[in-house]
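hey m, so remember when u said the tokens were messed up on ur end? i reran from scratch. heres the input so u can diff it against urs
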Amino acid sequence: MLKSYEATYENGQIKWLSDKPQLKLARLIIIVLEEIPTPTKIPKRTTPAHLIGKGKTLGDIVSPIVDEEDWEYLKW
């Protein structure tokens, strides 16, 4: 049965990136990626500085601020 494990090889040393296989004897097939991909960081969304602290909640978060009868007028 084949199982895959990820490791890096530096100066003759193998560094396991995940769980190390628990084997005493094994035959290995090694695939070499010539370039190690750098992890891409997705920038975290932040609130613009000029908007911080300026928001206001005008009604109850659970119920609407206006009566249901007025909903039709809001569609205009």
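this time it looks ok to me. The mean pLDDT is 80. if urs says something different then somethings off w ur setup not the seq
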